[in-house]
Design goal:
By secondary structure, the protein is an alpha+beta fold. It folds into two domains: 74 residues, no CATH class; 119 residues, no CATH class. It has nine helices and eight strands. Strand 7 and strand 8 form a beta hairpin. Helix 5 packs across helix 6, helix 6 packs antiparallel against helix 7 and helix 6 runs parallel beside helix 8.
């Protein structure tokens, strides 16, 4: 089921004055990052956000995306920034999701996100994939919406991922209890083609536990 993040939290009336605790609460779940819209819901006008950016309290990292300057750094910062910039319906997917789950040693050259429709503009360093995900294909990890392990492996296979990479991901995911064989078989059946061939081959090559 699609989880509730700061991006998709229930709408609550904005306070009449800036609420630092509310802004921190949102940013805390997003590695210290937040959008202008989220700041406004915490009582910060665009002008006030710009002022705090000039004084160093906040750091502007992208158009409409800011960071609490004193918030500790995170190894996933690129994913949070890309996700916030792309919008609330974006989901971390493909190679980026595989790396997020720790199922690949390869660092993607771009951040992969899946959205239900084509983005209005291209963004540097972000690879957009357009498809309508089912709620059952979306999970949460480290405060980010991410495709499930089974869906991720299927997407990487369909996108031309190397057979060795697919096999490694399948074996490790099963060994770590991140996915079931049934879930992988379901994805293979749903998508067919290369995804089915690679997943079936990976399952067949797994040594009995």
């Amino acid at each position: 089921m699609y989880h509730k993040t700061g991006h998709n939290a229930h709408q609550v009336a904005a306070p009449s004055s800036p609420d630092p605790d509310r802004l921190f609460s949102v940013a805390e779940g997003q590695a210290g990052y937040f959008t202008t819209a989220q700041a406004q819901r915490a009582g910060y006008s665009r002008g006030l956000v710009a002022h705090h950016a000039k004084t160093g309290v906040l750091e502007r990292v992208r158009s409409g995306v800011y960071r609490l300057t004193r918030f500790p750094g995170s190894p996933r910062e690129d994913l949070y920034i890309a996700w916030l910039e792309a919008g609330p319906r974006a989901v971390v997917s493909h190679d980026s999701a595989l790396e997020l789950y720790g199922l690949s040693d390869l660092l993607p050259a771009e951040t992969h996100l899946t959205l239900p429709r084509t983005s209005s503009r291209r963004r540097s360093g972000i690879r957009m994939h357009t498809t309508q995900l089912e709620s059952s294909d979306i999970a949460a990890r480290d405060g980010l919406p991410v495709t499930t392990v089974a869906r991720t492996i299927s997407d990487v296979a369909r996108n031309g991922g190397a057979s060795e990479l697919i096999a490694q991901a399948v074996h490790e995911a099963l060994n770590r209890g991140l996915v079931t064989q049934e879930a992988l078989e379901d994805q293979a059946s749903r998508h067919g083609g290369r995804a089915k061939r690679e997943i079936v081959a990976a399952l067949a090559s797994r040594e009995p536990s």
